[in-house]
Amino acid sequence: MNVPLVDLRKQYAPLKDEILAGIGRVFDGMQLFLGENVQALEKEFAQFCGAQYGIGVSDGTAALQIILRAMGIGAGDEVITVSHTFIATAEAIVLAGAKPVFVDIDPQTYLMDVAQVESKINARTKAILPVHLYGQTVDMEPLREIASRHGVQVIEDACQAHGAEYKGRRAGSLGDAAAFSFYYSKNLGAYGEGGFIATNDGDLARRIRMIRDHGSERRYLHDLIGWNGRLDEIQAVVLRAKLPHLEEWNEKRRQHAILYAELLKGTPAVTPVECPGNKHVYHLFVIRAPKRDELQAWLKSQGIFTGIHYPVPIHLQNAFQSSGYQAGDLPVSERVVGEILSLPMYAELETDQIEHVTNAIKTFFDQKP
Ligand SMILES: Cc1ncc(COP(=O)(O)O)c(C=O)c1O
Questions:
Q1: Which atom of ligand 1 is nearest to the CA of 133?
Q2: Going by DSSP bridges, is the β-strand pair 78-82/125-128 parallel, antiparallel, or unpaired?
Q3: What's domain 8-103+111-243's architecture?
Q4: Which of 125, 139, 153, 272 could crosslink 121 through cysteines, CB 3.0-4.6 Å?
């Protein structure tokens, strides 16, 4: 039996007619960017997140960068974030002209260790950028309290957290602004590139909207230096067809997570922790396991495809060599990267596929205790 990490064909099949009809209407009308589908998606996904304003953008990296620039964050400024995330989080800070300052993560959740944030705040700090990694939100209440005491902004990297909840509120409504990615494998994914910004700040939303389209509100008149960060109509058609199913898909992911955890009990594999008050949406189902590389190779030999998200923390990446960080600076981030393994996870995963994965893990540890 083959178990891929993600299987998009199963999700597409029941939506095919609706998506193709919508794309056909876009081609008939030839309004290809920022048209009626993008405008509708902006309302629908902002409402889903519980945010007042929504702005469709070209991708998640652009979303982060545009938020930072719209907040006036740039050269000489510092933004506090984590090193255990996808490179784009820190890359966007650098692209905006600012400096990422890294804090370590909690060893149970792999999320920003909020207790470490305050000691990194100084006069140059302009924002804190928590990452809701793997589909679970950071502990936002104490983080917001620290931010408001120091007058700094909070930007959610919600690129892996569509529909995740913190104390009954969804990612996208938990900070001053939030960035989402619609990369194809996300819980809500486009069939190309896409991204989204959610905020409750009307002035910020207006600047974001301008920066997304070359700093312009009126054609060929440019009030700000912006960016080409527009979302296209075809992606908006795909996303609008998928959005009504997102809650149900997230629920299925949660059910799969429960089954995985149940079946892996008693093995050396450490399964994910859902914090009280949180609703984890398991964009990725990440275990920690001894002999991780051998286990991954064994699973591959059994037709099971896994991933490592991510193998090298950002502060130790070649691209960040000049940032002044060294091995040993962020011990938890550095330790977990050698142990984490993302198991297959998507809504359409079947029970027998999950059993195949967990049986293979058990066999591995029975043979190599
Ligand atoms: C945590 C995180 N931040 C930012 C991004 C960037 O999003 P995109 O790939 O759409 O530019 C991603 C996407 O993979 C991500 O997972």
A1: 1
A2: parallel
A3: 3-Layer(aba) Sandwich (3.40)
A4: 125
